[in-house]
Amino acid sequence: MNMTLRTSLLAAPVAALLINTGAHAIIVLGNGEALNLDALMAMTDRRVQINDKIFNFESYTSSSFDTSKISIIGFVSVATNEFGLHNVGFDLTGPLGDGFPGDGHVQEANLQYSVEVEQSAYQNGVRLCDARATFNGDAFGEGSYSKVDETIIDLDTNTFLGELSVFSIQNTTPLIQLTDEKNFCDIYHSAGYRAFEVNKDMKFLAAMA
What we know:
Largest sheet: 8 strands, mixed
Shape: globular
Radius of gyration: 18 Å
Strand order of the largest sheet: 2-4-5-8-14-10-11-12
């Protein structure tokens, strides 16, 4: 089964500016454009620019899911927010799930990455505020689950900001949450952030064959 995990970020403008630094060539993805994760992780420079955000894919670990079958797809919302800015992020898509139902083993994967506001946008006052996770996964049978947890840190201060969780858990009373969102500017009364460090932890268990 192919599953898609979407990470998207909402930016807001503020007045602060920073001095420019040198630019480097990176991969650029438009809305709907795909990049194979295996090809990306084989590169020395794993930065991907999507609109005004730069994602640096630091590590991927899994004994369950082959990177050659997983893709990163750029996402840029058609509509803009009240500041005239797009929601920007990426879809992680591929055969993510428990391919060995009933064996009792959890299939896992972990993706570590950072996201920052592109420098010229940052100089123009754009900041990170809102993080959102969306999941189209499912689970079938008592005790089965599909879940993704994201831990988000302010990269500049190494301060924990919060967690996002999306899941489908099948118990006597099923628990399903396919979207989660937090606005850290509202939570911490902040003017916004330059960059986040994100750990995406994925777990899948098909309890019944």
